[in-house]
UniProtKB/TrEMBL annotation:
Database matches in CDD domains: AlaRS_core (cd00673)
Name under which the protein is recorded: Alanine--tRNA ligase
SUPFAM superfamilies: Class II aaRS and biotin synthetases, Putative anticodon-binding domain of alanyl-tRNA synthetase (AlaRS), ThrRS/AlaRS common domain
InterPro entries reported for this sequence: aa-tRNA-synth_II/BPL/LPL, Ala-tRNA-lgiase_IIc, Ala-tRNA-ligase_IIc_anticod-bd, Ala-tRNA-synth_IIc_core, Ala-tRNA-synth_IIc_N, Ala-tRNA_ligase, Ala_tRNA_ligase_euk/bac, Thr/Ala-tRNA-synth_IIc_edit
EC number: 6.1.1.7
Length: 626
C-alpha cells in the first residue's frame, strides 16, 4: 500500500467509528510563541485535550503534516525524516482504552494487513512512589486482541535489562511510556493532566541481523533498542490523571490521543526498515539517480546523500507551500538550512545545477491528489528553491575563497569555522572535510559554543517543549491577540487585499505580526493603520465568534487560511467577528481559535513600534497597547 492508500484507509476506518475528519493544520503554528513549527499531530489539538470544546465534537481524526527541525542532523540513516505525517484519532472525554486498543489493532491487522506476529507493544510500568499503578488494564486488552489471532501475548518487565524473553507486551518506566506537556510525572506542575501511553512496534525480523551489526550489539535487544530491528509505528496516550498537591488523582473526563507515523506504517507494510524505499520517494529518487548517475543503496556515503536530499527537499517543498520562505530568521532560517544542506549533499552526488526544483516537482506530482495546494503554489516553490540554489552556489565560492585566506594565516580554529558558517553560510561539514584533508582537526567544542549562542537568538525557542496556544491567557495577551486581528484588517484597508497573515508571536508585552507585502511602509501608511485600529477601539465594538462551515465563512467574508480539505471533508471553522452583531457591520471577520476580548474599548491605545523586512515579500510589525 502507498501512504496515500494507508491515509485514506485510516480516515475512512475512524469515520466509520463516528469520528469527524478534520484537515491538516499548517506547518506554521497559529499564535504560538513557544515553537516555530507544527511538530506533532497532537500539537493543534492541545487546547481541546485540555478542556476547550472542539467545534466538530468529541471524536476527531486527521492526518497532520509535521516538521521537526531538531532532526535535521539525524537525517541520513534509514528512518529519520524532518517532514512526516501523523495519523491521529482523539476521544475528548468520550471513549477510552476499551475501544481504542481493539480499534487500532483492527486497523493495523485488518485494514492495512500487518501480520500480528510482527507487532509488539509497550505499556507503563507504574510508579509506586507517585502512587500511579502499572497499566494492567491496557495489558489485558492487548492480550485479548492478540488472542483473537491465536497469539499468546506474554507480558515482560525489564526487557531493557534482560532482553525479550519471548514476550509480546513490555513494561517501561515514565521516560518511555508516559505523556504530559511537562514530560515525566515529577516535572508536572500542580493541575497539569497526563497519563500512560501504549506504543506499537513493528519487528522487521531478527534474521536481518540488524542488532548484531549495530552499536548496541553488546546489549540485550528489546523493542526500544535503537538497533533498527524494531520501529515504533503508533502510540495511544491515555490522559487519565491530574497532578495535585498530594500526588495524582483520576480525571473526571479522560481523553485518548493516538498518533501513528504514516511513513513508518508504510515501511512496515513494505517489509523494509528503510523508509526511503516507500513509494512516496520513488519518483524523486529516480530523478535524483538520473541526474547523479549513481544508484541508491550501492554505496554507504552516496546513500546518505540521497536520503538527505530527498528528505530536505520534500520538507522544503511543504514548508514553502505553507508560506515559509528561506531567510536568516525564525522559520525561514530552517528552510534555508534544509535547502543548502541538500545542495551540499547533491553536489557530492555530482548532480547538475538546478536539481532542487526538479526534485520538488517530483514530490508535488506525488502529493498533488492529497495536497492540491502544492500544485497551486508550484511556481512559488520552484522559484524559491531555484533562487536559493543560485545564492548558495555563489556562497560556496565565496566561502572557499575565505577558507583559503584563513588557511594561509595558520590553523583553522573552531571560531573560524563558525565565522565561515554564520557569515558565509559555509557548512561545518565542508570546513571539517577540508581541514581534515590537510591532516588537521577543528576545535568542535568552540564551534558548538559559538553555535549554541547563535541558535539561542535565531531559533526563538523552537527547541522548547510545546505548551499550546498563546504565551499565556493573561488579560494583556488576550488584548494584544485581538489587536492582531484589527491590525490585519487595517493593513488590508491601507495597503490592499494582497495582505495576509504570515505568522504572529504574542506575549503580554507586545505583538509581532508578519504579513505579505513587498515594500517598506511609509510613515503615512503606518500612521493611517494606527488611526484605523484606534478608531475601532474607541468605538468599543463587541467581539463574538461563530462556528461555520467553509462556504458560509467565505460567504461572510472571513479572512484566513482555508485548507483544501475543508471543501472535501466538510470541516467547520471558528470565525471571530469584531463589530455590531445586530446590524451585521463588522470591522474584522477572521478565522481563529481565540481567545479575544469581549469589547474593544478595554484595549487601550495601539502603537506601532517597528516595521521591517523578514524575507522576500514578507514584512513584520511590532506593536504595543498603551
Amino acid at each position: 500500500m502507498t501512504i496515500h492508500q494507508i491515509r485514506k484507509a485510516y480516515l475512512n476506518f475512524f469515520e466509520k467509528q463516528g469520528h469527524h475528519i478534520i484537515p491538516s493544520s499548517s506547518l506554521l503554528p497559529e499564535n504560538d510563541p513557544t515553537t516555530l513549527f507544527t511538530g506533532s499531530g497532537m500539537q493543534p489539538m492541545v487546547p481541546f485535550l485540555l478542556g476547550e470544546k472542539h467545534p466538530d465534537g468529541v471524536r476527531i481524526s486527521d492526518s497532520q503534516k509535521c516538521f521537526r527541525s531538531q532532526d535535521i542532523e539525524e537525517v541520513g540513516d534509514n528512518r529519520h525524516t524532518t517532514f512526516f505525517e501523523m495519523l491521529g484519532n482523539w476521544s475528548l472525554g468520550d471513549y477510552f482504552k476499551q475501544e481504542q486498543i481493539p480499534w487500532i489493532f483492527e486497523f493495523l491487522t485488518e485494514e492495512i494487513g500487518l501480520d500480528a506476529k510482527n507487532l509488539y507493544i509497550t505499556v507503563f510500568r507504574g510508579n509506586k512512589e507517585l502512587g500511579i499503578e502499572r497499566d494492567t488494564e491496557s495489558v489485558q486488552l492487548w492480550k485479548d486482541v492478540f488472542a483473537s489471532k491465536g497469539i499468546e501475548a506474554k507480558d515482560i518487565d525489564f526487557a531493557e535489562r534482560d532482553g525479550m524473553q519471548d514476550g509480546r507486551i513490555f513494561y517501561y518506566d515514565e521516560s518511555k511510556n508516559w505523556w504530559s506537556r511537562s514530560g515525566v510525572p515529577k516535572n508536572m506542575p500542580v493541575g497539569e493532566p497526563g497519563g500512560p501511553d501504549s506504543e506499537m512496534f513493528w519487528d522487521f525480523g531478527a534474521e536481518l541481523g540488524l542488532h548484531e551489526t549495530s552499536l548496541f550489539k553488546d546489549e540485550p535487544c528489546h523493542v526500544n533498542c535503537d538497533c533498527g530491528r524494531f520501529l515504533e509505528i503508533g502510540n495511544s496516550v491515555f490522559m487519565e490523571y491530574r497532578k495535585t498537591e498530594s500526588g495524582f488523582e483520576a480525571l473526571p473526563n479522560k481523553n485518548v490521543d493516538f498518533g501513528g507515523g504514516l511513513e513508518r506504517m508504510a515501511a512496515a507494510v513494505n517489509g523494509d526498515p528503510d523508509i526511503f524505499r516507500i513509494s512516496v520517494f520513488t519518483k524523486a529518487l529516480q530523478a535524483l539517480q538520473d541526474q547523479s548517475g549513481s544508484t541508491y543503496g550501492e554505496n554507504e556515503q552516496e546513500t546518505k546523500g540521497f536520503r538527505v536530499v530527498l528528505d530536505h527537499i520534500r520538507a522544503a517543498t511543504f514548508l514553502i507551500g505553507d508560506g515559509i520562505v528561506p531567510s536568516n530568521k525564525d522559520q525561514g532560517y530552517f528552510v534555508r538550512r534544509l535547502i543548502r544542506r541538500a545542495i551540499r549533499f547533491g553536489k557530492r552526488l555530482g548532480v547538475e545545477k538546478g536539481f532542487t526544483a526538479r526534485i520538488a516537482e517530483a514530490f508535488i506530482e506525488e502529493y498533488v491528489e492529497s495536497y492540491p495546494s502544492l500544485q497551486e503554489k508550484k511556481h512559488i516553490i520552484v522559484d524559491e528553491l531555484s533562487r536559493e540554489e543560485d545564492r548558495f552556489m555563489k556562497t560556496l565560492e565565496k566561502g572557499e575563497k575565505e577558507f583559503e585566506k584563513i588557511r594561509l594565516e595558520g590553523v583553522v580554529s573552531g571560531k573560524d569555522a563558525f565565522i565561515l558558517y554564520s557569515t558565509y553560510g559555509f557548512p561545518l561539514e565542508l570546513t571539517t572535510e577540508m581541514v581534515e584533508e590537510a591532516g588537521e582537526q577543528i576545535d568542535l567544542e568552540t564551534f558548538k559554543k559559538e553555535f549554541e549562542e547563535h541558535r539561542a537568538m535565531s531559533r526563538a525557542g523552537s527547541e522548547q517543549k510545546f505548551t499550546g496556544g498563546l504565551a499565556d491567557h493573561s488579560d494583556a495577551t488576550v488584548k494584544l491577540h485581538t489587536a492582531t486581528h484589527m491590525l490585519h484588517q487595517a493593513l488590508r484597508t491601507v495597503l490592499g487585499d494582497h495582505v495576509f497573515q504570515k505568522g504572529s508571536n504574542i506575549t503580554p508585552e507586545r505583538l509581532r505580526f508578519d504579513f505579505s507585502h513587498s515594500d517598506k511602509m511609509t510613515d503615512e501608511e503606518k500612521h493611517r493603520v494606527e488611526e484605523i485600529v484606534n478608531e475601532q477601539i474607541h468605538k468599543d465594538l463587541p467581539v463574538h465568534y461563530e462556528v461555520l462551515d467553509l462556504n458560509e465563512a467565505k460567504k461572510r467574508g472571513a479572512v484566513g487560511v482555508f485548507d483544501d480539505k475543508y471543501a472535501q471533508l466538510g470541516g467547520k471553522i471558528k470565525v471571530y467577528f469584531i463589530g455590531e452583531q445586530v446590524t451585521g457591520e463588522y470591522f474584522s471577520t477572521e478565522v481563529c481559535g481565540g481567545p479575544h476580548v469581549e469589547r474593544t474599548g478595554s484595549m487601550g491605545i495601539f502603537r506601532i513600534k517597528k516595521e521591517e523586512s523578514v524575507a522576500a515579500g514578507v514584512r513584520r510589525i511590532k506593536a504595543v497597547l498603551e
